[in-house]
Amino acid sequence: MVVRPYVEELKYLEKINDHCWRIKKGFQPNMNVEGVFYVNSRLEKLMLEELKNSCRPGAVGGFLPGVKQIANVAALPGIVGRSIGLPDIHSGYGFAIGNMAAFDMDDPLSVVSPGGVGFDINCGVRLLRTNLYEKDVQPVKEQLAQSLFDHIPVGVGSKGIIPMNARDLEEALEMGMDWSLREGYVWAEDKEHCEEYGRMLSADPAKVSMRAKKRGLPQLGTLGAGNHYAEIQVVDEIYDKWSASKMGIEEKGQVVVMIHSGSRGFGHQVATDALVQMEKAMKRDKIETNDRQLACARINSVEGQDYLKAMAAAANFAWVNRSSMTFLTRQAFAKMFNTTPDDLDMHVIYDVSHNIAKVENHIVDGRERKLLVHRKGSTRAFPPHHPLIPVDYQLTGQPVLVGGTMGTCSYVLTGTERGMQETFGSTCHGAGRALSRAKSRRNLDYKEVLDKLEQIGIAIRVASPKLVMEEAPEAYKDVTDVVDTCHAAGISKKCIKMRPIAVIKG
Amino acid sequence: MLKLKLEALGHPTPSDVALSNRKEFASTVLWLEDQKIRLYTIEDREKLRSLDNMQIWEEGYKKYCIDLKMPPYDTQLEQLTWMVGHAMRLEFLDDPSQYKVINGQDPNLTKNNGAQSQQKIQTIFDGKINVHDKEFIAGVRALATKLNVPHHPNHLLQLEAIARIVHERIGPAAKHRKAITGTPFPFDKGNDVVSANDPMLDYPMRILRLLQIQSLRQLQTQINETIVSVQTLTANPKTDTKLGKVGR
Predict the structure, then answer these.
(1) I need a labelling partner for B113 at 20 to 30 A (CA). Which of B63, B155, B173, B182 fits?
(2) More confident residue, A168 or A443
(3) Considering only CB atoms, which chain B residues are within 8 Å of A225?
(4) Which InterPro entries does the record associate with it (chain B) (predicted)?
């Protein structure tokens, strides 16, 4: 890594407009394309401060600052357009979380990198609507939270309540949500309102290690720990009435359920296995990167293809996982209100993936090209009339579900034409960390965090209270800042804001 | 479209023809007759000329429509569209050779289109009916008039349009369909940009897109229905709370 004083570093950064900065070539060695990041004035400060801290003499350890990571990604072979940082960006393994990058599939040197997908493959958010209003739920929210907590196992080492054997798992890995459909856990309409229709056809369970399968089997249908949660939320604000009504959200106060989860230990193992393989491939094919964490392999190499197939299987795992939790949530609500999920109109509004690599067609330099789009901590946000979004959202643009931090608020955005042109149809995914996990553990007290939530009237159930401070709102950037930046930059459009009234957490 | 046609015919103010105004309409009709159609002799146009006395004009217009053999249209727009089309045809027939060099960018496309629908309809009728029979064509035309289907030179395309209207509006399925509830949304106010500075393109594009979305929706509903019917055979969701374990 190039070490330069902070003032020198700043020369490579240029503010294009109020919400966008350019990272010029030369900021890191061998950059093939420029970098760019979206921030508002407050997020900008966090971003630059991080860079400044890393420039201090003697600063070692930890992750590289986000800006540096964007630039390192821009140096990967085969990257097209720009390496893009979304407003919620923060340092991660190799790629920053909130970094998206696209690679030309027709360039034989192009690479795929597990670091560009993340360890929690197909981590994503699903939003269910109901026809209940706050007044219906407020009196029973404690019981409802408990009921959800009983139905959806959470926390490190939790085990699911949907019986599955090894054969079921193989089938689920191959079929994704089609497996949940076949077994009757979800509705046909759920599939329709899911990215990729809940199934990646390229999945090949044979490319997944036994170890990953062993880890994954008991965990299916569990929420997990970390930043994952299930929240009962109420609609707090509607910015775009028409698009909201297309999603079945009619008025303020309407109750929705948000599920944020991924592929659990399964995805983690797939990523770990791939990293080992790729290091070998890099040596063989003489692929040079700026950062050892950016392990990658050519898309067309055996390792690259194996990873993509295993990643697709992990993605399918995550969809089955969220589908199983959808089923359990519907059961919990139906029991509580003594009716059926149908009568509660508990439809899936949408299901997004924010840790994934996908093959997509985009217009680059006036020509349509087939790209491998890595989105790590970044949500796909396709504009109206894009063929890959459900027919119900053809006029509104794809719904983008942005989960906030525990106890703050969440948003639904819609995709825009501008986002398609500027960011390969991508936008933010959440709040984005401001403090590292370790730092938040040191600085915050879990009792205080829980008390605070109770004070603002949020029912909370946690499996591991001592880990709660890692997820405290203080540890994160302000999701409203993040969303407002995306809206102002035009890469997605604000539609609905929700606030939580009950939280289930790992 | 009407504007373009009037422009082609050389109307002095094609974009200012306000159809909501009966008098404006009357003067446009008069202009068409005077300049282009010339069905009557100049003396016979007396009634159509009396724009100051609309009562007399209406009388004359009624007769004029019959003499012109115009199909019975309800709205001014339809009537005017037909008359303009008629005028264009006459204009063309005056000297067809003049237009010989002008042709569509891809004339094969329209031919194919016709051939396709012809084949489709032939299969439906199992080849038992000659779809080019005069009686058949007359029947299609009569049906089209009855259902207000706009004219198309290829009667088979017109027949397809008729079939669609029958299916969607008149058939038994359509009759039993529940009325759509909810607040309608003006279709030109979505998030999607079509062509903001060209209303001529914007309007029909939006309509075409809505039709496309409608047919996609039908397809998706069929898919969902198929999935549900398979689910009745395969679905057996189970839970076993004994397996559950909440982590630390």
Answers:
(1) B173
(2) A168
(3) 247
(4) RTRAF (IPR019265)
Measured between alpha carbons, how far is B41 from A233 in angstroms, rounded to an integer? 77
Instruction: Decide if pLDDT at A500 tops 50.
Output: yes
B229 CB-near residues (< 8 Å, 6+ apart): none
In chain A, which residue's Cα lies nearest the Cα of B231?
A182
Q: Within this chain, do residues A70 and A129 fall inside the same structural domain, yes or no?
A: no
Instruction: Print the domain residue range for A395.
Output: 123-505
Alpha helices in A293-354 (DSSP H): 302-337
Contacts of B235 in chain A (CB under 8 A): 182-184
User: In terms of Cα–Cα distance, which of A61, A62, A63, A47 is closest to A6?
Assistant: A47
Q: Which residues contact B1 (CB under 8 A, 6 or more apart)?
A: none
Lookup: tokens for A283: 């040596």
Are B39 and B6 in a shared domain? yes
pLDDT in tens, A89-148: 999 999 999 999 999 999 999 999 999 999 999 999 999 999 999 999 999 999 999 999
- The reply to whether A118 falls in a domain is no
Q: Which range marks the domain in which residue B223 is found?
A: 194-233
- Whether residue A92 sits in one domain with residue A11: yes
CATH of the domain at A267: 3.90.1860.10
Residues 411-470 of A with CB under 8 A from B: 414, 416-417, 463-464
ipTM: 0.88
Cα dist from A194 to A187, A319, A399, A415, whole Å: 12, 9, 10, 15
Which pLDDT band holds residue B127 (cuts at 50, 70, 90)?
low
Encode pLDDT of A360-398 as tens digits.
999 999 999 999 999 999 999 999 999 999 999 998 999
Do A50 and A21 have their domain in common? Answer: yes
Amino acid found at A454: E
Enclosing H/E stretch for A297? strand A297-298
A86 in a structural domain: yes
- Chain A residues with CB under 8 Å of B216 CB are 391, 394
Is A221 known to sit in a ligand binding site? no
CB spacing of A327 vs B237 below 8 angstroms = yes
B136 in any annotated domain = yes
Name which of A405, A417, A415 is nearest A482 in CA terms: A405
Tell whether B111 is covered by a domain: no
CA dihedral B139, B144, B145, B146 (to 10 degrees): 90
Asked if residue B121 belongs to a domain, the reply is: no
The catalytic residues of A are 429
Residue B114: inside a domain: no
- Proportion of chain A above pLDDT 70, given as a percent: 98
Estimate the crossing angle of helix B107-124 against helix B155-165, to 10 degrees: 60
User: Closest to B191 (Cβ–Cβ): which among A243, A328, A463?
Assistant: A243
Half-sphere exposure of A170 (CA within 13 A, CB side): 6
Interface contact A241, partner B, CB < 8 A: no
SS3 category, B75: coil
Neighbours of B15 (CB within 10 A): 8
Does the distance separating the beta carbons of A463 and B248 come in below 8 Å?
yes
The residue out of B102, B119, B145 marking a domain boundary is B102
